[in-house]
Amino acid sequence: MLVRQLHLTDFRNHRSTRVELSDGLTVIVGENGQGKSNLIEAIGWLAGIGSFRGAPDDALIAVGADSAVIRAVVESDDGREQLVEAELPRIGRNRIQVNRQRLQRSRDLLGVIRVTVFSPDDLSLVKGGPALRRRWLDEALVGRHPRLDSLRSDLDRVLKQRNALLRSAGGRLDADAEFTLDVWDAKLAETGEALKQVRLDLLEAIQPHLGASYDSVASTEAEVGTEYVSSWNGPLTDALIEARRLDVRRGVSTVGPHRDEVELMIGGSPARTHASQGEQRSLALAMRLAVDAVVREAGWKPVLLLDDVFSELDPGRAAALLKALPSAQSLLTAASGLPPGAEPDRVLRVIGGTISEEP
Asked: Cα(36)–Cα(30) distance, rounded to whole angstroms?
């Protein structure tokens, strides 16, 4: 998969930017605040993941503009070209088209462009709370099999409805509320068990790649592992019945895949609390590389987006990461020149949302 052309109109500080991208490594340089990260953020948005920097859509629209437009010409793995377009208005719904055909939802973009994103914030995958690791795993599921996005969406919908019912009960269930809760429990048990199983299957597939990627990035061998810690044992139906009194009292669902954890281990100890900063950073990079590997095993070739990650790495880890990257179209942003060992096909400089090519 390749992004051949990218055209931005009123996207952040890019008033009108058009750039053609090479097949290999493109390094985008520029001082902070000039708009280099905005280029790869736009590609990430078209991949269906929204802003990987966590920004809401209205923050992506340039000051004074009514909307932002992202267009890209994408070459799929079979050589076909597609035109992907998105307009993000300040008022109203986003308008998205693929080959001039309107898509109903942003999530319909999943699979049109596949990306693997590396950012300095990835350290939070190791140091942060369980929700971040659940999100990492679920995004990997969807990257590997986009159809699984519906399973995750179904779970979110069921939890929203179940929690709303629990809150409205005010600590006590009447007969009607109890009947309705039975219905939502059955749906939660079905979707929850299914999501847990595909998560377990994916972790099993990720494990060998995680260890190999860590050894490559850290330039040392270590015993790296994962453990899926479920919030329930046995059938989820039974766990929901057992937790019902507590759920009604608290007004929230206390068991289910939304409460599960992915524990990361280095040398048999929890990485979040026992690993050094360097080990944690190497593990975060390995997590991204491992997911990229299993997506490629499924037959896809994601575009690699590396947002200023080398500023957080020592020269040894920077060189090791470059060596560990798979052969793919890669876009790398950097504030202070090329990272050690980088041999880019193109170097682009961004100043105030304007792009120029450097020799």
From this structure: 6
294 and 199 in a common domain: yes
DSSP string, 241-300: HHHHHHHHHHTS--SSGGG-EEEEEETTEEHHHHS-HHHHHHHHHHHHHHHHHHHHHTT-
Domain match, 238 and 167 both: yes
Record the pTM: 0.93
- Whether 140 and 27 map to the same domain: the answer is no
What domain range includes position 287?
A: 120-300
Per-residue confidence in pLDDT tens, the chain, 359 aa: 899 999 999 999 999 999 999 999 999 999 999 999 999 999 999 998 899 999 999 999 999 999 999 999 999 888 899 999 999 999 999 999 999 999 987 778 888 899 999 998 999 999 999 999 999 999 999 999 988 999 999 999 999 999 999 999 998 999 999 999 999 999 999 999 999 999 999 999 999 999 999 999 999 999 999 999 999 999 999 999 999 999 999 999 999 999 999 999 999 999 999 999 999 999 999 999 999 999 999 999 999 999 999 888 888 888 899 999 999 999 999 987 777 778 899 999 999 999 999 87
What is the CATH number for 5?
Answer: 3.40.50.300
| Nearest CA among 21, 42, 41 for reference residue 307 | 41
Same domain, 240 and 335: no
